[in-house]
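Progress narrative, work stream C.
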Amino acid sequence: MAVILPDSLLARYERFSLYNSPYRAHDGGCAIDLYPGTLTDGRTTAAPSPVSGIVRETKTVRAPPKPYAPEHDHLILIDCEGPAGLEGLTARVLHVEPNVAAGDRVAAGDSLGTLVRAGFFAPWVDNHLHVGFREPDQNPHRASGSLPLEVGVEIEPLAWDGTGRVVATGDTYAVLDTPTHPEPGSRFVGVGADGGEPSETRRSSSERRSDGGGVLDGGLPHYDGGGLLGLENSPEGPVFLNGDRLGTVEGRTITWDDVVVTANGEPITGLSLFCARDADFGAKLICPDRPFSIGESVAVSVQPDPLP
C-alpha cells in the first residue's frame, strides 16, 4: 500500500525530498523530508504539522554522535484524522523538539514545536521535518518499516545545462541561480533527467529540455542512491543528466554509478537534488572542502570515478 500525500499537505512546505538522505528509513521512498524554509533561509525553526489528529506519544531518541550536533532527537507520533486518505494511519515525525504532549489534538499547520539539528543531519542539510506513516498495528518506534509514499502533486522537470552563478553560500554548500523556477509558489519543480544523449552531442543550454525524463531526487553521489519522481510509469534502465550517466533506475529508485561531480573541473562532494516551489530554487552544490564566491560562474558535470 502506498500513501498518497496530497497537495494540501505538501503546499505548507517550500521543499520536499523522498530520497535525499543516507538513512534506511528513506529506502524506496518510504519517508519524506519536509522543509518549511527556502534554500537561502534553510535554518528556520518553524515546525508546522503535516497532519491533523491526536498526539499519541512524544519520545526522546538517540541520534548518531556528531561533533556539531546533540546525540538526541525527538519522535512525535500522531494518530491521523486528516488530510483525506491518511485517516487511521500513524504519522512519525522526527527532528522537532515538541511543544505538544500525548492527548493533544493538532490541526494541520499547527506548530508541533521547534525544529532541531540532531546527529542525523549532515552539516549541509537544512532544517526539516522527517515524516513517515504506519498502519495502526505496526511498531511505530522502529526507524524502518514505514509505508511507501507517493506525492499527489505534479512535479515539473526543469532542464539544466549544468552552469550557473553562485547566489548563496554556506560553510558546506553553494547555491546557483539556475535552473530557475518559472512561476514560484505555483507548483513544485526539480532538476530534470534527460533522454540520455551522449555527452559529445549535447545541445546548447538554449536548446536543452528535460525530455520527460522525470525529476531527480537524492544526494548525488554522497548518499547511496536517489529517486526519479513525477513519472506515471515505472522506468528501468540508465539515467542521465546532460548526457552524463548517473546510474540505473528500477521502479523509481536509482542506484548511482561510481561517479564524481565536478565544478569547474574540480571534484566536489556532490549535488543535492530535491523538489521545490520557492523563488530561491537553484542547483545546490555540496562542497565542504571547496569555497565558492557570490557571483562566481560554475560549470558542473558528472564523470565516472577514476578510483571507484
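Work stream C, second folded protein:
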Amino acid sequence: MYAIEFEADIQDGVVKIPPEYSRLRNSHAKIVVMVRDESAPSPEAASLDLSNLRVEAFQGRDAVEVQREMRDEW
C-alpha cells in the first residue's frame, strides 16, 4: 500500500481524482478526509449527552466497593 496526497473540492459528496492519478480508476482505496477547523462541528454539537443513560452494572451495589473488591483480587 502507498499514499498519495492532493487537494480537491467536494461537490455533492463527490471528490474528483486528478488526471495524474487516473490509474486509480476502478480500484479500492482507503480515504482520509481532512478539513479546515472552521468546518468542524463545535464541541457543543459534538459532545455526548449521557443524561438519559441508565447503567445497571452497579444497580443496588456501591460502585466504589465493587472497585475495591476488584483491586483486592490482584
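The beta strands are 10-11, 14-15. No further action is required on this item.
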